[in-house]
Every structure is written in structure tokens, then in C-alpha cells.
Design goal:
With about 110 residues, the protein is an alpha+beta fold. The chain has a single domain, classed as Alpha-Beta Plaits, CATH 3.30.70. It is about 30% helix and about 30% strand. It has a four-stranded antiparallel β-sheet with strand order 2-3-1-4. Strand 2 and strand 3 form a beta hairpin. The longest helix has 15 residues. The chain is globular and about 40 Å long. The chain starts with a strand and ends in a 17-residue tail after the last strand. It comes from Halovivax asiaticus JCM 14624. This is Antibiotic biosynthesis monooxygenase. InterPro entries: Dimeric_a/b-barrel, Monooxy_af470.
Length: about 110
């Protein structure tokens, strides 16, 4: 499994952002190998972390090559003050679990 952590400092979102963001989520959800996402917000800094869960690197690469996702990547300066993407391969997970909301999402 792979985790993609999208860390961002949000700027101003307009209608085009929301439209494109919704379209990207549909692309992710219809890509074989997408497992879900979790989002955290830091109220002090407004920083946002979104962690996406993928079955394989191939699935992630398929999503990353999608035209809708490519358009969004080209326009990031319109909506974010800064961003960072970290891709991590999961080697092991352990713990007590979190019931219905356990990571990774199903």
C-alpha cells in the first residue's frame, strides 16, 4: 500500500477550484486501487493534511496521469499559497485499530 500526503497552505478558493476538486475526487474514486482518504486541519495555522490511500504504485500513477489531475496541478498557484506531496510505501501497520474508521479506509 502507498500513502500520498498532500500538505497545503490554502489560499482563496473560487467556483472553478471546487468544480475541479470535485472532479478530481471522482477520478480518484473511479481509479482501481484507490482506498480512500483522511483529512486533518490545523486551526492555528490553517494548514491542511490530506492522506490518500492507494493499493499500488501503478494505481497512483494512473491517477496522477489523468487529464483532470494534470490540469489541477498546473493551476495550483491560483488556489494554494504552498503545497508539498510525500509518497510513502507502507511496510507494516499495527495497533488496536479504530473500528469502522480504521486506516486504511475501505
Amino acid at each position: 500500500m502507498y500513502l500520498v500526503t498532500f500538505r497545503l497552505d490554502p489560499g482563496d478558493y473560487d467556483a472553478q477550484f471546487h468544480e475541479l476538486n470535485d472532479a478530481i475526487q471522482v477520478v480518484a474514486e473511479t481509479t482501481d486501487g484507490y482506498r480512500g482518504k483522511r483529512t486533518w486541519n490545523d486551526p492555528e495555522s490553517d494548514e491542511v493534511l490530506v492522506v490518500y490511500y492507494w493499493e499500488s504504485l501503478d494505481a497512483l500513477e494512473e491517477f496522477g496521469a489523468d487529464d483532470t489531475h494534470e490540469r489541477a496541478k498546473q493551476r495550483w498557484t491560483e488556489w494554494y499559497d504552498a503545497y508539498e506531496v510525500t509518497i510513502t510505501e507502507v511496510v507494516e501497520t499495527y495497533g488496536s485499530g479504530f473500528g469502522e474508521s480504521a486506516d486504511p479506509p475501505v
